[in-house]
Amino acid sequence: MIPRHQTVLFVILLLASVIMGALLWNQLRRAHERLLRGQDAAPTQAPQVAPAEQATLMVANDADNSVQPRILTLPLPQNPEARARAVLGKLLDLYAAPDATHPIPGGASSIAQVFLVPIAESNGKASPTAPQLAVVNLTNAFAAGHPSGLETETLTILSICATLNANLPRVTQVRFLVDGQTRATLAGHADLTRTYLTDATAPTEGANP
Known about the structure:
Elements: H1 4-41, E1 52-61, E2 66-75, H2 80-96, E3 111-118, E4 132-138, H3 140-145, H4 150-167, E5 171-178, E6 196-197, H5 198-201
Parallel strand pairs: 4-5
Antiparallel strand pairs: 1-2, 3-4, 5-6
Helix pairs in contact: 2-4
Protein backbone atom coordinates (compact mmCIF):
# COMPACT_ATOMS: atom_id res chain seq x y z
CA MET A 1 0.00 0.00 0.00
CA ILE A 2 1.30 3.45 -0.99
CA PRO A 3 1.85 5.72 1.98
CA ARG A 4 -0.52 8.68 2.21
CA HIS A 5 2.23 11.32 2.03
CA GLN A 6 3.57 9.84 -1.25
CA THR A 7 0.08 9.91 -2.76
CA VAL A 8 -0.33 13.57 -1.79
CA LEU A 9 3.12 14.41 -3.23
CA PHE A 10 2.24 12.63 -6.51
CA VAL A 11 -1.01 14.56 -6.84
CA ILE A 12 0.76 17.87 -6.17
CA LEU A 13 3.43 17.14 -8.81
CA LEU A 14 0.78 16.10 -11.31
CA LEU A 15 -1.18 19.32 -10.77
CA ALA A 16 2.03 21.38 -11.06
CA SER A 17 2.87 19.68 -14.37
CA VAL A 18 -0.62 20.38 -15.73
CA ILE A 19 -0.41 24.04 -14.67
CA MET A 20 3.06 24.50 -16.16
CA GLY A 21 1.95 22.90 -19.42
CA ALA A 22 -1.04 25.22 -19.61
CA LEU A 23 1.13 28.27 -18.96
CA LEU A 24 3.66 27.20 -21.60
CA TRP A 25 0.92 26.60 -24.17
CA ASN A 26 -0.55 30.04 -23.43
CA GLN A 27 2.82 31.73 -23.89
CA LEU A 28 3.38 29.98 -27.20
CA ARG A 29 -0.09 31.02 -28.38
CA ARG A 30 0.54 34.66 -27.43
CA ALA A 31 3.94 34.65 -29.14
CA HIS A 32 2.34 33.29 -32.31
CA GLU A 33 -0.32 35.99 -32.19
CA ARG A 34 2.35 38.70 -31.82
CA LEU A 35 4.18 37.26 -34.80
CA LEU A 36 1.04 37.35 -36.92
CA ARG A 37 0.29 40.93 -35.84
CA GLY A 38 3.83 41.93 -36.76
CA GLN A 39 3.47 40.40 -40.21
CA ASP A 40 0.17 42.14 -40.79
CA ALA A 41 1.62 45.48 -39.67
CA ALA A 42 4.73 45.18 -41.84
CA PRO A 43 4.45 47.35 -44.97
CA THR A 44 4.26 45.41 -48.19
CA GLN A 45 6.62 46.74 -50.85
CA ALA A 46 6.51 45.59 -54.42
CA PRO A 47 9.90 44.67 -55.83
CA GLN A 48 11.43 47.35 -57.99
CA VAL A 49 11.33 46.34 -61.63
CA ALA A 50 13.30 48.31 -64.20
CA PRO A 51 11.19 49.62 -67.09
CA ALA A 52 11.47 47.76 -70.36
CA GLU A 53 13.42 49.57 -73.07
CA GLN A 54 14.92 48.74 -76.42
CA ALA A 55 18.56 47.71 -76.35
CA THR A 56 20.88 47.03 -79.25
CA LEU A 57 23.07 43.99 -78.73
CA MET A 58 25.98 43.50 -81.11
CA VAL A 59 25.90 39.72 -81.49
CA ALA A 60 28.85 37.74 -82.83
CA ASN A 61 28.35 35.03 -85.45
CA ASP A 62 31.01 32.36 -85.86
CA ALA A 63 29.63 31.26 -89.23
CA ASP A 64 30.93 34.35 -91.04
CA ASN A 65 33.04 36.01 -88.28
CA SER A 66 30.66 38.96 -88.15
CA VAL A 67 29.10 41.06 -85.41
CA GLN A 68 25.54 42.05 -86.20
CA PRO A 69 22.99 44.18 -84.31
CA ARG A 70 20.01 42.58 -82.64
CA ILE A 71 17.37 44.81 -81.04
CA LEU A 72 15.66 43.41 -77.96
CA THR A 73 13.31 44.82 -75.34
CA LEU A 74 14.88 44.46 -71.89
CA PRO A 75 14.32 45.76 -68.36
CA LEU A 76 17.09 48.35 -68.11
CA PRO A 77 18.03 50.16 -64.89
CA GLN A 78 18.54 53.93 -64.99
CA ASN A 79 21.96 53.71 -63.34
CA PRO A 80 24.49 53.66 -66.23
CA GLU A 81 26.76 51.04 -64.66
CA ALA A 82 23.82 48.76 -63.86
CA ARG A 83 22.51 49.33 -67.39
CA ALA A 84 25.88 48.37 -68.87
CA ARG A 85 25.96 45.20 -66.81
CA ALA A 86 22.39 44.36 -67.85
CA VAL A 87 23.02 44.64 -71.60
CA LEU A 88 26.29 42.71 -71.39
CA GLY A 89 24.61 40.07 -69.24
CA LYS A 90 21.92 39.59 -71.86
CA LEU A 91 24.58 39.40 -74.58
CA LEU A 92 26.39 36.61 -72.74
CA ASP A 93 23.06 34.86 -72.06
CA LEU A 94 22.60 34.70 -75.84
CA TYR A 95 26.05 33.16 -76.17
CA ALA A 96 25.23 30.55 -73.50
CA ALA A 97 21.98 29.51 -75.22
CA PRO A 98 21.83 26.14 -77.02
CA ASP A 99 21.27 27.80 -80.41
CA ALA A 100 23.98 30.45 -79.96
CA THR A 101 25.74 31.77 -83.05
CA HIS A 102 28.84 32.33 -80.89
CA PRO A 103 28.74 29.61 -78.19
CA ILE A 104 30.37 30.57 -74.90
CA PRO A 105 29.43 29.09 -71.51
CA GLY A 106 28.73 31.27 -68.49
CA GLY A 107 25.90 33.65 -69.28
CA ALA A 108 25.09 36.84 -67.39
CA SER A 109 26.86 35.72 -64.22
CA SER A 110 30.14 36.03 -66.13
CA ILE A 111 29.95 39.83 -65.78
CA ALA A 112 31.14 40.50 -62.24
CA GLN A 113 31.05 44.30 -62.47
CA VAL A 114 31.13 47.21 -64.90
CA PHE A 115 32.67 50.52 -63.86
CA LEU A 116 32.30 53.74 -65.86
CA VAL A 117 35.11 56.25 -65.40
CA PRO A 118 35.00 59.77 -66.92
CA ILE A 119 37.94 60.49 -69.19
CA ALA A 120 39.64 63.71 -68.13
CA GLU A 121 40.39 66.42 -70.65
CA SER A 122 43.82 67.92 -71.19
CA ASN A 123 43.25 70.29 -68.25
CA GLY A 124 42.76 67.30 -65.96
CA LYS A 125 39.02 67.88 -65.49
CA ALA A 126 36.11 65.77 -66.66
CA SER A 127 32.86 67.45 -67.68
CA PRO A 128 29.43 65.88 -66.97
CA THR A 129 29.25 64.92 -70.65
CA ALA A 130 32.84 63.70 -70.91
CA PRO A 131 33.59 60.43 -72.70
CA GLN A 132 33.82 57.41 -70.45
CA LEU A 133 36.11 54.44 -69.99
CA ALA A 134 34.22 51.23 -69.24
CA VAL A 135 36.07 48.74 -67.06
CA VAL A 136 34.50 45.32 -67.57
CA ASN A 137 35.35 42.86 -64.82
CA LEU A 138 34.84 39.30 -66.06
CA THR A 139 34.84 36.20 -63.88
CA ASN A 140 37.71 33.76 -63.96
CA ALA A 141 35.22 30.98 -64.76
CA PHE A 142 34.21 32.82 -67.95
CA ALA A 143 37.81 33.26 -69.09
CA ALA A 144 38.67 29.65 -68.20
CA GLY A 145 35.68 28.31 -70.14
CA HIS A 146 36.02 30.58 -73.18
CA PRO A 147 36.92 28.71 -76.38
CA SER A 148 40.52 29.39 -77.38
CA GLY A 149 41.29 30.93 -80.75
CA LEU A 150 42.15 34.36 -82.13
CA GLU A 151 38.94 34.78 -84.12
CA THR A 152 36.50 33.60 -81.45
CA GLU A 153 38.19 35.62 -78.70
CA THR A 154 38.34 38.72 -80.90
CA LEU A 155 34.65 38.39 -81.74
CA THR A 156 33.82 38.33 -78.04
CA ILE A 157 35.86 41.48 -77.39
CA LEU A 158 34.39 43.24 -80.43
CA SER A 159 30.81 42.39 -79.49
CA ILE A 160 31.23 43.55 -75.88
CA CYS A 161 32.82 46.86 -76.91
CA ALA A 162 30.25 47.49 -79.64
CA THR A 163 27.32 46.61 -77.36
CA LEU A 164 28.54 49.07 -74.74
CA ASN A 165 28.93 51.83 -77.32
CA ALA A 166 25.53 51.12 -78.88
CA ASN A 167 23.70 51.50 -75.56
CA LEU A 168 25.96 53.99 -73.76
CA PRO A 169 27.32 56.31 -76.48
CA ARG A 170 29.59 58.12 -74.01
CA VAL A 171 31.63 54.92 -73.63
CA THR A 172 34.54 55.41 -76.01
CA GLN A 173 37.14 53.17 -74.36
CA VAL A 174 36.97 49.71 -72.76
CA ARG A 175 39.38 47.88 -70.47
CA PHE A 176 39.01 44.30 -69.27
CA LEU A 177 39.81 42.70 -65.93
CA VAL A 178 39.37 39.10 -64.80
CA ASP A 179 38.35 38.71 -61.15
CA GLY A 180 39.60 42.25 -60.57
CA GLN A 181 43.08 41.56 -61.95
CA THR A 182 44.85 42.35 -65.20
CA ARG A 183 45.09 39.29 -67.43
CA ALA A 184 47.35 38.89 -70.45
CA THR A 185 44.77 37.31 -72.78
CA LEU A 186 41.18 36.18 -72.76
CA ALA A 187 41.89 32.53 -73.61
CA GLY A 188 45.41 32.62 -74.99
CA HIS A 189 45.06 35.08 -77.88
CA ALA A 190 42.97 38.28 -77.52
CA ASP A 191 45.00 40.92 -75.68
CA LEU A 192 43.38 42.05 -72.41
CA THR A 193 46.21 44.38 -71.38
CA ARG A 194 45.29 47.09 -73.89
CA THR A 195 42.58 49.72 -73.93
CA TYR A 196 40.05 49.19 -76.73
CA LEU A 197 38.61 52.19 -78.55
CA THR A 198 34.95 51.62 -79.35
CA ASP A 199 35.07 53.66 -82.57
CA ALA A 200 37.89 51.43 -83.76
CA THR A 201 36.20 48.18 -82.73
CA ALA A 202 32.64 49.04 -83.75
CA PRO A 203 31.99 46.65 -86.67
CA THR A 204 29.70 47.05 -89.61
CA GLU A 205 27.27 44.25 -90.36
CA GLY A 206 29.05 41.35 -91.96
CA ALA A 207 32.52 42.74 -91.31
CA ASN A 208 35.30 40.40 -90.31
CA PRO A 209 37.23 41.12 -87.11
